[in-house]
Every structure is written in structure tokens, then in C-alpha cells.
Amino acid sequence: PALTLKIILSINISNVNWTLIFSYVFSELIIYVTALLIGKYIFNLKWNEAILIGMASSFANHLLFVYPIALNEYQADLIHPIVAIIGFDVIFLVINLIILDLIKFKNLKLKNIFIKQFSNLPLIALILGLTIIFLDIELPISIHRALDFIANSAAPCALFAAGIILSQKLEKTEIKISNLIILFKIILHPVLLILIIWNLDNIDFSLAETTIMVASAPVGLMALIFSTQYGMNPNAITRALMITTLFSIVTVPLASMFG
Fold it and tell me: Phi/psi at 256 (nearest 5 deg)?
């Protein structure tokens, strides 16, 4: 949440190419729905498990992987798309959590489920960040330093947690599901996005470079974080996270060549 807030505060909404962002979101939704349906009807997973497979196959690790790279290598106009995608993914995450809550808590009223989302820390960070931007609030330097300190701890904590889960033994089905996530996340998603951009005359590939890098990024942490909370063994997602992180050392630089 601290990292999300820090990044949202850096965006200049007027400089965002919304056609490019919606192209990414469209490709993300195609990957999400396709992986979800394969998980449900080919692997015979429960709906909550299939949704988490869809999330793992489409949500990228833009916060801890692509954004730090782009921050050091690119100018602000190529970083803005990454920040906008992060904002959309937080909203998409909330929608998924509402659906997962409806599945898990069948007797819970929809109103209560919506209210429950305001304990969702990434959503709070997004709302707080946008509020500060629109009201043009100047934060004290002490808060900026605190955000930096907390944000810098995110990656080590996430890797530590993933390492613990990786110590567990995987079943054959979990390996197959993991391979599905890997295929969708770092191969099919960037290829699909490139094809979509290719067919849009008003998007210059030089402006889409970092967006394609996000599509080529490893599995994001959100599906892993919420898997145990919503009744799914996290082994397959954790394995996919580790392998896609290794593969992304190659795929992300390759994606940048399309700029």
C-alpha cells in the first residue's frame, strides 16, 4: 500500500495516453477470462480457484519489477502508463475480491461486501493518492520519507514469503496449472498486446515500450497474497511467480526492443 500510494502521487493524469492504457486493459481482460475458463472447465477447479488463476495469469508484477526499472531508465512520459495501469489493476483487484467474497460468504449482504472493501489497503492507497492529487495537497517531507522507507521493504518481504511456500511439495496438477500461468503471463499476454497496438494507427510503438514491458513482467503478488485467504493452495501460483521472475530477466528487455 505504501508503494502504491507513493507511485500514484507521482502521476500526471493529463499526460496519460488513454488509448494505450485501454489497449493494455483489454488484453489483460482477454488473458484473465481465458485462463479463468481453462482453470474452471479443463482443470475442474472451483470458481474461487479459477478466478485466482485468472488473476495470476493476467496481473503483472509492475510495482516491484517493471516500475523500478523504468524509473531508472525512462523519462516521465513513459512511466505514466505504468502508474495508470497500476491504478486500473487496483480497481480490477477490488472487483475480483468482491466476487470472491460473494462466493466465500454466501450469506453476506452485497452492501456489507462493498463496505468490507474499504479495509482493502491497496484500494485505500489508491483513493488517498488520487484525493491528494486532485486537492493538490502538499505532503510534509517526513511522510515522503516514511513512504520511501516502507515501500523499499515490500520486495524483500514478498520474496521471503514466496520462498517459504516454495519449500512445499507440488502435485502434478499444480505443476500443469503453474505452466498454464507461465505461458499466459510472459508469452501470450505481451504477444496479444503487441498485436492490438499493431492494429491501432494512433499509437506509436516508441510510446508503448514500457506498457509492453508490463505485459512481459512476471506474475504479480496479489493472486498469491489472496490465494490462502480464499481457499486455494498457493503452490502453483508461487512456482509460476518464481519461474516468470527468472524468465522476465529476458522477456522484459526483449519487450523494450519494440519501442
Answer: -65, -20
Please say whether the beta carbons of 219 and 64 come within 8 A: no
Which three cell numbers, joined as nine digits, stand for 227? 490465494
Q: What pTM value is reported for the model?
A: 0.82
Half-sphere exposure of 55 (CA within 13 A, CB side): 31
Coil, strand or helix at 246? helix
At 215, which helix (H) or strand (E)?
A: helix 209-215
Q: How far apart (Å, rounded) are the C-alpha atoms in residues 143 and 145? A: 5
**Degrees, nearest 5: CA angle 59-65-67:** 95
Residues 6 or more apart in contact with residue 246 via CB below 8 angstroms? none
Cell of 75: 523519462
DSSP-derived 3-state class of residue 54: helix
pLDDT over 70 percentage in the chain: 82
pLDDT digits 0-9 by tens, 181-195:
999 999 999 999 999
Residue 28 identity (one-letter amino acid): E
Tens of pLDDT along 17-54?
889 999 999 999 999 999 999 999 999 999 999 999 99
Q: How far is CA 209 from CA 7, 15, 216, 218, 231, in A?
A: 19, 16, 11, 16, 37
